[in-house]
Amino acid sequence: MNDNTFRIFATIIFVTTIFISGYFRSKADKVTGEKVSWKDEGIVMILLLRVGGLLLWFSIIGFLIYPPLLAWSKVGLPEWARWIGIGIGFVCALLIYWIFNSIGSGISPTVGTRKEHKLVTHGIYRWVRHPLYSVGTLLFLSFATMADSWFIAAMAILAFVLLAIRLPNEEAHLIDKFGNEYREYMKTTGQFLPKFQEQK
Fold first, then answer.
1. How far apart are CA 114 and CA 174, in angstroms?
2. What gap in Å lies between CA 45 and CA 190, rounded to an integer?
3. Is the alpha carbon torsion for 194, 109, 41, 44 positive or negative?
């Protein structure tokens, strides 16, 4: 089977997730009437995230528009593995809707929080503090599988590493805003995956 079939499914997943993200982020800006400042990120982290993000997005878009652009990064995955990538991509799209629907107007593109932000502990946030990081990475890895590209996979992993490095700064801001409420929340949730409690 040629790349066109995988391209079609990848495009559907890509457009769906972009629409979900754009809709909820735009709605949050309108509801709160504010844009969250990037000043707390630090110039180095901003540059790293921007450059890494552009490489990741452009590589995915390159596959969607013209697959031969990424021919040099082909792994040679079997067709069944690429179909699994499609399945994971659709699951990620559903999870991304759940994430954005759960956090509502509290979504922020930076480590900063909105002035009226309330700590969200329902929906997917009942189990995971930063589900967008883990689900987003899984989504990008699904695109890497659909595109049969080690470069997209490498960029997805790099983006996750950068976000993980940034995470202590983000959690420090959340502790600063919510205090003990957030510290207690941290005890029962995992950063990227659900935290399994030990049986007493």
1. 11
2. 23
3. positive
- Tokens 């995992």 label which residue? 190
Alpha carbon distance 10, 31 (integer Å): 31
CA 131 to chain centre: 8
pLDDT category, 38, cuts 50, 70, 90?
low
* Mean predicted lDDT score pLDDT of the chain: 87
40, pLDDT greater than 90? no
Which class for 69: exposed (0-12), middle (13-18), buried (19 or more C-beta within 10 A)? Answer: middle
**% pLDDT > 70, the chain:** 88
What is the residue range of 148's domain?
3-25+38-111+118-188
Partners of 74 in the β-ladder = 149
3-state SS, residue 121: coil
Can you name the residues that pair with 190 across neighbouring β-strands?
A: 128
- Residue 199 located in a structural domain: no
User: Per the structure block, which two tokens stand in for 151?
Assistant: 């470069």
CATH number of residue 62's parent domain: 1.20.120.1630
